[in-house]
Design brief:
heterodimer; A: Rossmann fold; six-stranded mixed sheet; four-stranded antiparallel sheet; 10 strands; B: 402 residues; six-stranded mixed beta barrel; elongated
Amino acid sequence: MSEWVVDARDLTKVYQMGDVEVHALRGLSMLIEPGEIVAIMGPSGSGKSTLMNMLGCLDSPTSGEYYLDGERVAGMVDDQLADIRNRKVGFVFQGFNLLPRSSALANVELPLRYSSTNGRSRRGMARSALEVVGLGDRMNHRPNELSGGEQQRVAIARAIVNEPSIVMADEPTGNLDTKSGDEIMELLLSLNHDQGTTLIVVTHDPEIAAHTGRVVNIRDGRVVMENNL
Amino acid sequence: MSLWQSFLEAIGSLSANKTRSSLTMLGIMIGVGAVIALMGLGEGTQASITGEIESIGTNVLFVSSGGEADNPEALTIRDAQVIADPSLAPSVKNVAPVLQGKVEVSIPGESTSTSLVAITPEYHLVQSADVAQGLPITDDQLENYASIVLLGTDVAEELFNRTTDLIGEKVRLNGQVFTVSGVLEEQGAAGFGSSGDNQVLVPLTTAQMRLLKRASSDEVDLIYIQANNAEGVPAAEEEVAQILRSRHRSTLGEDDFEITTTQSIVDMAETITNTLTLFLGAIAGVSLLVGGIGIMNIMLVTVTERTKEIGLRKAMGARKRDVLSQFLVESSLLSLGGGLIGIMLGFGIAIMVGRLISIDAVITVEVVLLATLFSAAIGLFFGLYPANRAASLEPVEALRSE
């Protein structure tokens, strides 16, 4: 087991937009210990979304090295990326991204359906994840029967159901009112506290960032400032 | 993801868009239904024609005047007698010369027009003309120009509204009084309107004299010939040809007669109905193709609508083949579902139309299997492009879409 859960060195990402090359990441390095909470901040166009895509294994870097929980991610092909996302990354999106026709339970089961987990343990794991986020009594409700805060809880349960190495939360409170937003942040922090989940929050809200232990500021594809709170 | 899971999810997403799914299925339904109905009716027609021809007997051939010659000499009773000579035509078992024509059959208050066949007793051996009640025509009646008639069941029904207790009744054939000496066995529907039940049989000599006048008094229209067995048909054909050539002095020129075997008619009929069935099937197949394009169209719309969902699934670890199979299962279900309903629909149509035109539609297991496989294959084929498009989406791009 590696010392770092995230070990990214000299990451670059170049997009070809017609004739123009866009350098979204310009040699960015980042190390994250297991159990850390890290906020990634930066204005739009700073490369923080690209960084999130790299760290979440949704895309591979143009150059540089990235080890997630000891596995070399740079150079992986699509299906390998899908596999490592399935095993090691949990996602929480701003817009919840739940399947509208499926129950909370079925939504939480979704990542397990793409792993080799069998049906019965799938159900059990999804139930306990929903209990962890405090929705043990609403498992069979569909997303449209749940409040925004509850929907985000379902999404968090889905992110942690396969016990990932990192949970990536992209503006997790962006679509919620202040009260629900605070509750969601509390939930994420308690997960980190109780279960040692490594949490990477991408946000532009300094208040959210203030909840975390470490804030990384990105600008023009580079880390410009790190604060350890 | 297991196939069963994909199946359940596909059912879920198809039933979420019920109107759209059923309209898409309708295309395949109509296509498969049309194929099944046309194939079934085609096969049924073929079976009925073949059956009717074979009911004459596969060892039967018949000779008619004509052929390639310019001035054909008519066939005569004498020709038939020579063909019946075992020393000249050893492969021939029975010979039945006939005259054929139309006749007006009437009783007081009722009248109907029907086919008249004038026969010798051998006809009962050569043709399916069993007598249900009464007696077949005898040599005695032939010699005495007897005024007796055997009625087909349709004719009996038409005149008397019954098919029993008719022996001894008087009927008029073209105004001349004949006594009913029997009723033929019912043969059943036989396609294309002609029927062995809508005819009357009289002794050949009686007809020659009083009903069907020909240029020469011993002229006949057809000579039915029964070979010893089905294998003897080619030999019998050759023997009969030799006899007629020498009797008609046409050994050098073209034959002035034509010999037709049952098998040759069956072959010809099968060729015609096969071509017809295939042709109709191909037209119906076009609508199946259109249905398939409909599936492709709707699947492309579905993929576009669900881009974000696809991105999400990929972020959760769905591989290319998971997404591919999810959409392929959906499109196959659409076309298979449409196909299965279409098979039932086609069944229904074939049976109903078959009843209207009195043909028993024949829907074979092969046709049903073929239709099922074909509709599944259509779903796969036309679903492949949309599914592949979904599977190749970049997760980052797909998640960003709204």
